[in-house]
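Q: Start with the shorter request: fold the first protein.
A: Done. Sequence, then structure:
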Amino acid sequence: MSKRRGFDIDFPGNADGVYTGAKRKETPEPAARPEGRRGPMAAAISENADALRQRAEAERAIREENDRLAHEHVRLKRAGLITDLIPLDAIRIEKLTRDRGPGPDPDIGELKDSIRAIGLSNPIQVEPSGDGYELVQGFRRLRAYRELYAETGDEAFAKIPAGLIATGAELEQLYRRMVDENLVRRDISFAEMAVLALRYAEDPGTSAEDLGSAIDVLFASAGRQKRSYIRHFGSLIEQVGDALQHPQAISRNLGLDLNKRLASEDGFEGRLREAMDGQGEVSPDYEVAVLQDLLKSAPKAPKPRAGTTRNAAAKTTLRCTVPAGTVRCAARDGKVELQMERDFSSIDRHRLEAAVAAFMSALDD
């Protein structure tokens, strides 16, 4: 028979051996966190807040930099210092009337040779307009590029360097930009300046009422004597400009003499038109020679009309607003001109005849 091994069980009890029950195991108190230490949740919230603050600060700095760059861009654009390569067919020349006529420019060849050799050193100036650009300065430079592209087909001439000016400049300021640039050209003629002043006065978008006020605005930086010469040439162009092919070739003295004879001699305008009529296409030198010969001829005695005193120099100009738009009127002895943005040749002949008759009838009432 095997002997069973025993073992002792130690029951807690008192000094007399009486069982008092098992001793309860006490849960230890949690250890105190070190000073300043946070729990995981609080740390995550704090880190997220710091990240949001840093992001907001970065966004604010970016907005301030963008605003600064935008203001600087506008400033440079207003000064015409933002330059880009603009396609030739995206540039229009409709907003401002140019002093250069559609005929050949004797100096354009030299400009084209210079562009071929060293490029364009002075960019043109354009104003963004719709889906394209409107030319402000650089008519001859643009013309040279267009001719070079047409002659060579070289894509290097398909785009022209252009300074971009801010949109919204006053029309008067745009004209002044163009005029001030032209005044530094030694070859610009008084006739070209007079034509520009006349077109400015005719433009409904300007405040000029007549040739004189247009000259005062456009050529404010010119001397008083020069403005006086432009007025004389303006009167000459108004009266016989349609009979001349090369008014830009007329010298200052020749223009002043012609204008004086037109104002003082009855019938001189008819003689001038007769001399120019039927000549066909002539050179500038030939036309100037004809005009000089005409001045050398003896003046004819005027034939005043009975009961009237003729004043060929007197002229009345006015502007009238009608439902169809703004009409500019220039009236002088024996001539009335009405100008507005309308194709009068499209009007039925009978309606036009009735309108003229009504106009004359109203004058006699």
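Q: Next, the second protein, separately.
A: Sequence, then structure:
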Amino acid sequence: MKAVVVHGAGDVRVDELPAPAPPGPGEVLLALEWGGICGSDLAYWKHGASGTATLNRPMVLGHEIAGRIAALGPGVSGLTAGQPVTVHPARPTANSVLPPRLAGRTNLHSRVRYFGSAAFDPHTDGGFSQYRTVPADQIRPLPDGVDTEHGALAEPLAVALHAVRRAPDPRGRTVLVNGAGPIGSLVVAAALHRGAGAVIAADLCADSLAVARAMGATDTRDLSRGAGLPQDTEIVFEASGAPAALGPVLRATARGGTLVQVGNLPGTPAPAALGELVTREISWVGSYRFAGELDEALAALRDGLDVGPVISHRFGIEEAPTALAVAADPATGSGKVMLRLADAP
């Protein structure tokens, strides 16, 4: 089978790998159809690392995936061959136990194997392949009317919904989203889904702002043209991950307001202007992956939330190196770049 394998910094290949063995007890064999390229996939390709996870051996990329069930292992019930599904990519290790104060916050397990992650050695292969065996409890059926391309985006939508859950109730309020890439634009949609009265999106890229508008943003600010951020916004989401943005974003947050950091910040020292955090008494909270929001994301897709506008490019699996290059290059105006892992039946 074909698989997208990163061998080191700057070295990604479409390799021919052995097809998986028949699924064992409690397992499901998936025939994958679509995968969405994420920032962590780009980091492994460009740098051989993502955050503190360093690539030590070749690894299959990809955690935003969907396809159909090809075969069921012994003891698996409630699923059927041919059923369209996506995957919850996280699986806590057996020795990771949440303390009572973190009950339900499964994204905060100290040791988690995640699809397409080099956090452990051996690494955890991802799903940018034609087939993948998955534990049955990580399978999530797609609702009627949700195709596998959109189903592959349930994972980043869950990230956005989790970010909104980390904020105060947005119902009826004006929300600011700084950074309108795929996650930022999905935060726009998630905030509106949760009842925000209006959402302002800000970015340096006109193409990204167009996507944010398509996802429901009621106002946009093109920072490359000198537009300023709105002031005194009670709920702000920082989705750019740029340390230089923190000063202006904190100044845009209302006194006593909340800033949710959903964009990944560097793991190394970086200058940032943080004085307003204290003098404006702002609550600055982090948002990491998601907990139970994958099911909420699937329900939102079922109910009509359209993630299609964030998709800018589609490539076949054999074009994966080109797809990664397009996703990584701001000059392409790319949003979410999708890989067609196999054709739907």
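Q: Describe the second briefly.
A: The CA atoms of residues 243 and 272 lie 5 Å apart. The chain has two domains: 2-154+291-340, 167-286.
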